[in-house]
Amino acid sequence: MGEDTTHFTDVDRTKDPQFFTRFLDEGNKLPAIVASKPIILEGLRLSGSERVLDVGCGMGADVFEIAPLVGSNGQVTGVDVSAAMIDEARRRAEGRGLPVSFEVGDSQGLRFEAGTFDAVRTERMLMHVPDAELALSEMTRVLKPGGRLSVFDFDWETQFCDSPHRDTTRKITQSFCDGIKNGWIGRKLPRLFKTNGLHEVTVKPQTVLVHYPFLELLLGGHVARACEAGVLAREEANQWWTSLAQAHRAGVFLYGFTAFIVAGVKR
To answer: Which element (helix H / strand E) includes 219?
Structure first.
């Protein structure tokens, strides 16, 4: 008898106030995300004393990693649209003596003057921004000439899943992609870098494999809402989840998608 996974179609767990913090923490543990961090950092080519901006900094983990690289003569600023995330980042910064600061801000309208920073990074943020092109333009604007921008984001149309339920898989993955504000942002990044006047643009695709428990976090709420909206029949969804749970127990589960790490230099 297959595992009963009907809870996925009955309960939208994204309504849990702790969900997003847990989701971010678990996402940061994925091997492909861990492996991508030094590649994103490499795109900034820091040598010390730089002013660095992290847009969509969340709870500040990457700001704290960068701070020792710029040293006491440098400064790392984290900006996030979420006041709760900034409060947590400030709490985590207390007593660490690092050259960091955090503030609430909108990537589509950064408060900084043109040419303020030597380097700017963002990771897994542009897919959620109402106007991703404006956000990228803003990040370019606040860079100094010769400054470097490094961006990591997903392309959700590239999801792949080893499932016997092909049509259901397509309904779920395509509706998920279309439900993300910028589901195609990964494939757009190289062009947007160039149209914003960045040169020496490098493009490094990364395949992100996720395990079954993380897929529950990633797609559980989406599948529940898709059933409520009539996009997907509950029976279809339950069969899909059950087959994936069986694959997980058998050690043959496979699910993933493509990310892009794009870096460039401002003229």
So the answer is: helix 212-228
User: 3-state class of 1 per DSSP?
Assistant: coil
Neighbours of 105 (CB within 10 A): 21
> For the segment 119-153, what is each residue's pLDDT rounded down to a tens digit?
999 999 999 999 999 999 999 999 999 999 999 99
Please report the domains of the chain, with CATH numbers, ordered by start residue: 7-266 (3.40.50.150)
Q: What are 196's two structure tokens?
A: 């914003």
Return the residue matching tokens 């900094």. 57
Q: Which residues, 6+ apart, have CB-to-CB distance to 138 below 8 Å?
A: 107, 108, 109, 110
Sign of the four-CA dihedral 168, 169, 172, 178: negative
How far, in Å, CA of 47 to CA of 20, rounded?
34
pLDDT, one tens digit per residue, over 8-19 is 444 445 567 677
With cut-offs at 50, 70 and 90, classify the pLDDT of residue 23: confident
Contacts for 60 with CB less than 8 Å, ≥ 6 apart: 78, 88, 89, 90, 92, 93, 100, 102
Beta bridge partners of 101: 77
Structure tokens at 144: 């100094």
